[in-house]
Structure formats: C-alpha cells, structure tokens
Amino acid sequence: GVIYLVSDLNYNKWDVDNEENPERNFKLMDTKQILEMKEYGIEFGGHTLTHPRLSKIDLELAKNEMLKSKITIENKIGCPLYSFAYPYGDLNESLKSFAKEIGYPFAVATDSGPGIFSEDLYQIRRIAIFPTNNMFNFKRKVSGKYIINKLGKSF
Predict the structure, then answer these.
(1) For burial by CB atoms within 10 Å, which of 13, 24, 49, 76 has the most?
(2) Long-range contacts at 72-80 (CB < 8 A, ≥ 24 apart)
C-alpha cells in the first residue's frame, strides 16, 4: 500500500475546516507510527505541506508545497518518495510538469486521467475511499473493476 503524507499538519485541517461538509478532527500519524508502518512494508508518497487546492494558489507557492513536503518526508523516513498525490485530485499541466521536475516518477489524481495508467504517468486515476463509504461501496471500489465500470469501457 501507499499512504500519501501531508508533512506539516498534525490533524486533518482540510476536512475539519470544510464549511460545506466538515468532518471530525483526527490526529495524523506521528514519525514513530510512520516509521513503524515503513518497517511493515508500507510505502509513502508526497501530498504537500498543508493540503491546498494546488491549481487555485500561486504557482510558486504550489511548487513550494510539493518540493518542501518531498524533502521533509524523505528526511523523516530515510528513503526517496516515488509518487505524489494531488490534494483533491486538483491538478493542471504546470503541476504535472513540476511533479516530474522534482523527481517523482509518477503522480496520482482521483477521478481524472486515462483509464490506462501508462498513458499519463502524472495523472494516474486512483480510487478514493472516504469515511462515508459503506461496505458495499468499499467492496465495489476495491473489486478491480470499479474504474472500468465507471468509464464504461472494456480493455
């Protein structure tokens, strides 16, 4: 598995401060927990410093969010990060270029990008699982057929 880490927050501020659908406050993993998970084979990826909507902020600030988070997490876990997840799946061509430039071999979005991940390694579709998903939705999303069914395509 891959867990995408927000490096400079200690709780889910982006969800708690969401006026349209606020969620309860929960503590994010500390360094000890992250290193323990690493020992069990969990991989970690970058997810910015503070979880902003990157395409809605100044490009230099967005670059800073991505780069400094990568450096911080790599220093914390002692190994390179291989992937980046755009917060909210919010991206544009500039952000994709920057993910590549700072050394990520690939990056994941949410419900955007081609159905075949190798077509765009900086906009790979991923399936979001939320606290509001019931067991039926969870099983449907992890079945392996979810994206194919959602796109209405066969490969």
Answers:
(1) 49
(2) 72/7, 72/8, 73/5, 73/7, 73/44, 73/46, 76/7, 76/31, 76/34, 77/34, 77/35, 77/38, 77/44, 79/38
